[in-house]
């Protein structure tokens, strides 16, 4: 299927196994590109502010994040805006269907999700999707008073530190005005959130080191001690998922 007709989708789901499964189903149809998968309302709002989105798949209850608000609050805050995306409720209960459709929700899929139902939903969405502007092709960063233009495919990582966001590449480290959530939405699954303060480009991961003190990942152009690279911390709850995604399309390691 041509890339030009893929739906750009954002997933709001607080439980990561369900979130990952829905992402897999969406992309497995060949009809959608998941440009972000987040757990909280605040992350969803940041993602929507940072990149064009065609559809948001919204879980209603977000109990796992400790947030008393619901996915319907996100829809209420965005519905009616000129460039608002389409919304699909992806939840465990049909009890919110009447309010959801009053808010303009275009579809309602119930857990446990199935390939057939997700594909059916995306076909409906493609039939009614409005045209969107061309995707951004360059990343603009700052170096003192200058603007720096970077090729997205050559970026190594993004870092949040001291209330600022930085972009790392072979050219150096530069300031950028977007949050990590907005960046994650713009880049999609090419980036992996290894830590709450770090997004890394999987294409440039050179080494994953694990020890008693935790895990770190080396990202850059080569492995040599004098080579160009950086190290980022890996959160304990993300280390296994990172290892799995790195090994997904790799060979050479015996797996038990």
Description:
The protein contains seven helices and 15 strands. It has 256 residues and is an alpha/beta fold. The chain folds into two domains: 3-128, Response regulator (Rossmann fold, 3-Layer(aba) Sandwich); 139-247, Beta Barrel (OB fold (Dihydrolipoamide Acetyltransferase, E2P)). α2 (41-50) crosses α6. The longest helix is centred in the middle third of the chain and has 14 residues, at 115-128.
- How are strands sequenced across the largest beta sheet? 2-1-3-4-5
User: How many domains?
Assistant: 2
The CATH superfamily of the largest domain bears the name Response regulator
CATH architecture of the largest domain: 3-Layer(aba) Sandwich
Q: Would you state the CATH class of the largest domain?
A: Alpha Beta
- Strand-and-helix sequence, N→C? EHEHEHEHEHEEEEEHEEEEEH
- Report the portion of residues in β strands: 25-35%
Count of helices? 7
Beta strand count: 15
What is the CATH third-level topology name of the largest domain?
Answer: Rossmann fold
Computed structural class: alpha/beta
In short:
This protein has 256 residues and is an alpha/beta fold. It has helices at 16-28, 41-50, 71-78, 97-102, 115-128, 180-187, 239-247, and strands at residues 7-12, 32-38, 55-58, 86-91, 107-110, 139-143, 146-150, 155-161, 164-169, 172-176, 191-195, 198-201, 205-211, 214-220, 229-234.
Name the descriptors.
globular, 256 residues, 2 domains, OB fold (Dihydrolipoamide Acetyltransferase, E2P), alpha/beta, single chain, Rossmann fold, five-stranded parallel beta sheet, 7 helices
């Amino acid at each position: 299927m041509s890339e030009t007709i893929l739906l750009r989708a954002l997933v709001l789901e607080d439980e990561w196994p369900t979130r990952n499964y829905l992402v897999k189903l969406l992309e497995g149809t060949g009809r959608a590109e998941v440009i972000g998968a987040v757990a909280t309302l605040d992350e969803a709002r940041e993602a929507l502010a940072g990149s064009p989105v065609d559809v948001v798949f919204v879980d209603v209850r977000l109990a796992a994040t400790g947030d008393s608000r619901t996915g319907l609050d996100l829809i209420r805050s965005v519905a009616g805006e000129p460039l608002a995306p389409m919304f699909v409720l992806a939840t465990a209960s049909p009890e919110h269907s009447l309010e959801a459709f009053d808010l303009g929700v275009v579809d309602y899929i119930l857990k446990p999700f199935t390939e057939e139902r997700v594909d059916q939903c995306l076909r409906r969405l493609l039939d009614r999707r409005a045209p969107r502007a061309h995707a951004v092709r360059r990343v603009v960063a700052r170096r003192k008073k200058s603007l720096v233009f970077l090729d997205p495919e050559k970026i190594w990582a993004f870092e949040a530190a001291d209330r600022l966001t930085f972009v790392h590449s072979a050219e150096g480290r530069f300031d950028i005005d977007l949050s990590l959530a907005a960046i994650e939405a713009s880049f999609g699954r090419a980036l992996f959130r290894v830590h709450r303060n770090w997004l890394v480009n999987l294409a440039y991961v050179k080494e994953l080191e694990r020890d008693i003190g935790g895990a770190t990942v080396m990202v850059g152009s080569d492995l040599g001690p004098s080579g160009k690279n950086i190290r980022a911390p890996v959160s304990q709850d993300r280390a296994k998922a990172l290892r799995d995604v790195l090994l997904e399309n790799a060979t050479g390691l015996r797996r038990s």
